[in-house]
Amino acid sequence: MQKKICFKCNLIFELSNFYYFKRKEKSYCDNYCKDCRKIDWKIKRLIREQKLINQGYYSIHNYRINEFADYKEYCRIRSSTYNEKYDKARKKKGIDLASDYYIRQLIKKDKSLKGVQIPKELIEFYRINLLLKREIQKHLN
């Protein structure tokens, strides 16, 4: 396994701990490890937010809404269509695939268990039981 030194923290990591960038001209591995790069991004965002707050805005979002009409329209469209259409499709997919979230909701209705206390084995048991019931209903109809 290849290793590389982070230019910021001077520690040696495997290449999987570095971001890999693909550009049209060339592809390369970042010189900062993922943790150092995330810290840099957070610092840059905080600096940008502070500059906007000094200019009189509440946040980056507030700045974008006030300065860019397209962003305001984007937010309006995203909030209205995303919630109605996407959520219905996502919930239906969760029910069809018998996702963990859907199974937890069923267990909560049946039992007085909280979501955190539900063991994985019980979720898997409910999932198998539900899928078997669905198959039986298909063959009966």
Helix and strand topology:
Elements: E1 3-5, E2 12-14, E3 18-22, E4 27-33, H1 34-54, H2 60-67, H3 69-97, H4 100-110, H5 120-140
Helix pairs in contact: 2-3, 4-5
Please tell me the overall pLDDT: 85
User: If strands are numbered along the chain, what order do they take across the biggest sheet?
Assistant: 1-2
Q: Which regions contain 5 or more consecutive residues with pLDDT less than 50? A: none
Q: How many extended strands?
A: 4
* Helical stretch tally: 5
Give the topology string: H per helix, E per strand: EEEEHHHHH
Q: Report the end-to-end length measured between terminal Cα atoms.
A: 56 Å
**Shape label:** extended
Q: What would you report as the Rg, rounded to the nearest angstrom?
A: 24 Å
Structural class: alpha+beta
Q: How helix-rich are the residues, as a percent range?
A: 55-70%
Please report which band the strand proportion falls in: under 5%, 5-15%, 15-25%, 25-35%, 35-45% or over 45%. 5-15%
The largest β sheet comes out as: 2 strands, antiparallel
